[in-house]
Each structure stands twice: as C-alpha cells, then as structure tokens.
Amino acid sequence: MCDFSSLPPQGMRPELKMTPEFHRIRRLPPYVFEEVNRIKARLRAQGVDIIDFGMGNPDMPTPKHIVDKLIETARDPKAGRYSASKGIVGLRRAMAGYYKKRFGVTLNPDTEVIATLGSKEGFANLAQALTAPGDVILCPNPAYPIHAYGFIMAGGVIRHVPAPSPEEYLSGVSAAMRHSSPAPSVLILSYPSNPTAQWVDLDFYKEAVALAKKHDLLVLSDIAYSEIYFDDNPPPSILQVDGAKDIAVEVNSLSKTYAMAGWRVGMVVGNERMCAALARVKSYLDYGAYTPIQVAAAAALNGPQDCVDEIRAMYKSRRDTLVTSMKRAGWDIPSPPASMFAWAPLPEQYKDAGSMLFAKLLIEEAGIAVAPGVAFGEYGEGYVRIGLVENEHRIRQAARNVKKFLANSEEILGRAHNTLAAQ
Predict the structure, then answer these.
(1) What pTM was estimated for this model as a whole?
(2) Range of 260's domain?
(3) For residue 343, with 0-12 CB atoms within 10 Å meaning exposed, 13-18 middle and 19 or more buried, which class applies?
(4) How far apart are alpha carbons 82 and 413 in whole angstroms?
(5) Mind listing the pLDDT tens digit for each residue in 151-181?
(6) In angstroms, rounded to a whole number, what is the distance separating the alpha carbons of residues 10 and 1?
(7) Does residue 14 belong to any structural domain of this protein?
(8) Do 316 and 208 lie in a common domain?
(9) HSE of 285 in the Cβ direction (CA atoms, 13 Å)?
C-alpha cells in the first residue's frame, strides 16, 4: 500500500519542499512590533477598547485644499496613465521651492530633486543605489528600522553606533572609523529623531559634514519630522551647510507635515550624483505615484501653510497633555522638543521587566499600545515610544489606566513571571 504522507502538497514541486528561507529574509529579524500588534488584534476582536499610541500614523484629516486638488485632477481622463518615476516636473519644482523658502537652500529640480513613494521607499532605494555587498554603514542606535534594514537588504553591513544624544553619536562615529574594516562608506543622520525625538542645530550639521569629508563618507540625512517642532527654532537642514551637497542628500516627507501618510509622497534632495543613482534605480522599479497625488502634493507645498501650523499646534497640545497627565499618574515622561513621539523611560516599577514585556503587559492590563524601545535597536532598551496620535480626551483616559496599572504593578508582574515560568 502506498504511503502518500511524505509527498509535498498538491502544486508544490518536490525539490522546493525543504528549500531554506530566502537569503535576504534570513538577514531580517522577526518584526518586533508584530508581537504587540498580535495582542492588539486579539483584544480588539474581543471588543476591548485599545488606546493606540503604537504607530506614528497621523489621525487628523488631510487639509481640504489638498484633497480638492486630488479630486479635481483625478477627473482628467488622462490622469490614470503612467506617471514619471522621478516625479512630475511640477512636483519637483514645488519641492525645490519648499527648500528655498524653508531653508534658503537652492536646488535644481531637474538634477537635485527626486520625488519618492514616501521617505521610506526613498531611503530603501537609496540604499540599493549606493551599496555594494559588504559595504559598512554607520547607523545610530536606537533608530527607525529602515535606516539599518534598508542597507541590510541591499547587502550592506551595519556598524551600530550608540546614540543616547546627537553629540555622543558623532563622537562614536569617530571611534567607529578607527576600528572598522573595511572603512565605512555611508553615515546616517536623523533629526528630529524617530524614536528619541531629539533634534540638532546647524552647528551639529557643520561638524557632521566636516567629519564626513575627513573620512570620505556619504551622508544620508532623514528629516521627515522637520515641521513638527514645539519651540521658536525650526530644525535646520544639513544642506544649509556650505559644501554639504558635495556629499549629502536629505530624505524628507509630506506624511506628517500635511497629514498625508497614506498618500506616500516623499523626496530625496541634494547631491546630484546620489540623486542620479536613485533615479536610475527607480526607473527600473516604479512609474512614480499616481499623477493626481503628485499634483495635490505640489498644491500642498505651494499653497497656504496655515494648515501646517494647525497640525503642529495639535501635536504640541497632545504632547503637553501627555506629559502632564502621565506625571500625575506616576509616570515621568520627558517633554519631546520635536517629532510626533515621546521617548519614555520605563516606569520605575517595570524597569527590570524590559521594554517588550512592559509593552505587552501595558496593552493586556491597561488597554494601551506603545512601541517597545528594543524594536529600534539594543540601545532602545529601557524605553518605549509613544505616538501623539490620540486626542487629548483619549490621552487623559490612558493616564487614568496607567495610574491603576502602576498601582497594581506587583500583582501584574507576579502573574507575568508565573506565566513565563510555566512555559
């Protein structure tokens, strides 16, 4: 009698049955955020109300004049045709105009501006364009995951440099240059930072440019949160530094500035050679965003900017509510100077638990989702990232839940340790 139990499922070739995981997938660790997301999905399916600070996903509407321009352009019978992979001319001119008005930086829209499908795609495809297998990349830690894994997927090797502060990061870069072989080829900067919310002044960029030129490094500067700041000093651009365009490009985005995260509109600007390399890679991979989206993005950059002020004020109000209400609840959270995040040290009662267990317990016991700091690198341990993506009423509700959560910490941790011991 034939035994069919060892045969592969119908439609699967026998030689593929035991194929190991694909090379690039093997280089990627499990997505840490997924652990919290699975718990969130399970609790929501059970009808639990989750106050979700976990993802930096703007909850306010895109300003009306931008949406109106999208609708108007989409009615054109030709609007559904392929667009341009590097961005339509009108959008690239609007991006160059934004840099001139905001930073005083002159850019050639034909050679120094590339419109991207959000800053994340721009960063990842830059990594593909710039990286040879084995190239060493200097990356801050903690950092937004694409900063490291965009290069890892491109075959690069990441040299993590601790970044508890911008100054310590640059100091660490100098040390890493002395002890890396082969010599690093790219330096990554990201201020205002996701996740730490730190930002820098122009003197920092002057030092970074001088350091990069000294060591023959290319610089990728991510300033996706440059318009979300809370005092009178807007964050600068590295391209304001004399000679920066010799070695640097900047990655920017409309996602947070205009509450357009799902529209996927970003830009890479600066060094002509790096922009050309990115344009060539993109020409093989995409035809650019839907043209009406690009036209509407140009309208956002060229149009009235009071909407940006309103969005910024909304984040500031949420920040102040978060810091004040959580302090009353017993959780001291430093007030972030910029970005849409707070980088919060674990409450004293949970310091030994670690950020992942804390995040799991917080959602299970208090109905509050946050991003564990370890998801942003080993030096993110001891912190969680809190997105300012719920309104003030929900933030105060979260603080009330946190107060109970902290008051019952001994019991909650005891149950958690018993569960872990039983596994």
Answers:
(1) 0.90
(2) 65-302
(3) buried
(4) 56
(5) 999 999 999 999 999 999 999 998 899 888 8
(6) 20
(7) no
(8) no
(9) 17
